[in-house]
Predict the 3D structure of the following.
Amino acid sequence: DTAVSQTPKYLVTQMGNDKSIKCEQNLGHDTMYWYKQDSKKFLKIMFSYNNKELIINETVPNRFSPKSPDKAHLNLHINSLELGDSAVYFCASSQDVAATYEQYFGPGTRLTVT
Amino acid sequence: AQSVTQLGSHVSVSEGALVLLRCNYSSSVPPYLFWYVQYPNQGLQLLLKYTSAATLVKGINGFEAEFKKSETSFHLTKPSAHMSDAAEYFCAVTQGGGGNKLTFGTGTQLKVEL
């Protein structure tokens, strides 16, 4: 069983479109995250939810909107896609927000905006 | 504020040779430190973590790292490189509080040659 799964794995779309990426974890964790990895492989946190509550909201355009329907799911919706949104988006989860708990990462969603 | 510096974006070693990947951190409070590995087109996998217990931390696949507060370092080592170790390695730091926000270094690409 995959601990943290993401769909889709690849997403190719045109500028101006709206798209969503879904993430699910079956680890029973309370905290979930979205990270963005750019073309130079630099990873940066975007959002974090703990028990469905938003606790980290980095400087991200408000075209990006996360939603957590329950503790096991964290989705990312992106409006009006731009070329610069092309990246690999990783979902992660951890047992809770304590820094001692490691984060488990999903396989990533490669978003290409043309 | 917290940050991580990884010296050497590319490291090349011969199979059987020592692997040394460097990581220096900056943190205003005692840090929690992690090493993750990313194989091509995959998510990140935790190698090891330091959470203020033993300063020498052993991880998976024969890797270990030593936390040196005086040098603000957390270098990753492996006595004998294997071809399967070729991957991208990321050092990351987080602090207590603040929602377990991981700050990553820029990564080191390890190449293992015959």
Notes: Chain A has no helices and eleven strands.
